[in-house]
Amino acid sequence: MHTLRSGKAIEPVFRGTNSELAAYFDASEKYGWDMNCAIAANATSSGRITQEAWDFLSSALLTALDRDGPFDGVLLALHGAMVTESFDDGEGALLAAVREKVGPDVPVCVSLDLHANVTDQMAESGSGLFSFRTYPHIDIYETAARAAVVLRDAMDGKIRPRCVVARRAMVDGVNRGRSQDGPMVELVRRSLAFGKEAGILDVSVNAGFPWADIEMAGPTVTVTHDDAADRARAIAAEMMDLAWDERANVTVPLLDIEQAMARVAALGAGDRPIILADFSDNPGGGAYGDSPNLLGAMIAAGVKNAAFGCIADPEAVTMCQRAGVRGTVTLPIGGKVDPALTPPLVVTGEVVGISEGSFTLQGPLSSGLRGSMGSTAILRIGSIDVILCSFRLQTMDPAVFRSQGIDPEDKAVVALKSAHHFRAAFEPMAREILIVDAHGLASPDLGKFEYKKVRRPVWPLDL
Ligand SMILES: [Zn+2]
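That is the input. Now the predicted structure with zinc ion docked in place:
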């Protein structure tokens, strides 16, 4: 988890980047607010947030509300699928606590990821919920700017925003939020049209996060309105009817490892890279990011001039550091977190790079933000350059490779761990993109999981 605790430290990190906080800082300047930024923190998708982390993060916000208030309005940039050791609905619990502090009349506007699992509690406690409309999320800044405009109007007394949410018996759907094709295109088009109606302030579509086993996981539509609750509910219901009808419409086929390697062989040599994206070991979906399954297949197939990013394995990094640059090592890589699911792979390679693993995102997604994969080593196995790093990381930006001296555009094959975000920056350079289910934790086959808390019956588990 990365955390910044004071406004003075937070502002320079986010200003000028494609982030929600950049939009909030810009809004504060534009609208002449005296803004108090309580805390900024982020973490890659994982298991439940520990009680200690929850206490630390939530108290930073709630204490600031007590200590520095009263406030005329509250802006929050949340993901929307937080699950903690004590709360299945982390954002709902947080928003309820904020609402209790500020009272019923202070507007609380929240920008959300479109993979939010929006609950009834969130819609009840927040004044307005505003979600990204793109996946890959390239409209992060714009989304937060939408939230800030409604907060401004509410603080000026022009509107009194409230929010409704609709869902159906589905834990998955809307093409997992992909906004280039499939049902999201029509849903976003309608949300923009409905958003122009009198009294309707915003309509947002959420694909949900199906790997969170909570009662209200799954796609939702939220409508933020000004004294138009009945119309807002009708819009949300109509939008969810379309989402339900289109629930099985998935536009991106997943290949198994054998199919992917056969396609790589069939494509042969070319002047631009083939991108292999391991959907199932994507840390953005909560996976471990340490599966060597796809790498093992690439080595066995003798893939030439390739790069593989990344395998999170601090022990392997340490072994490479000990060997030093130009040292040769034989070691097990990956598969440390759950060897039964994704066993380690024993490889022999030459260490060709060692670094502290920091980079600045260059692509359209979160551009300008700093990232870190922790202590990092580059291991050359045959003609595959493998990035071994210390932190779990979704590979969504070429800076992950370039910061290590690897230009993905010069490679014949680039393998990475991401379901869809990588497309924002890698699609323009790709000869072909292959999405692979390499049997990692974040399986697209939800039937593999033993759900205990999600409401039943629900599609696609029962219906
Ligand atoms: Zn998302």
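Residues 51-68 form the longest helix (18 residues).
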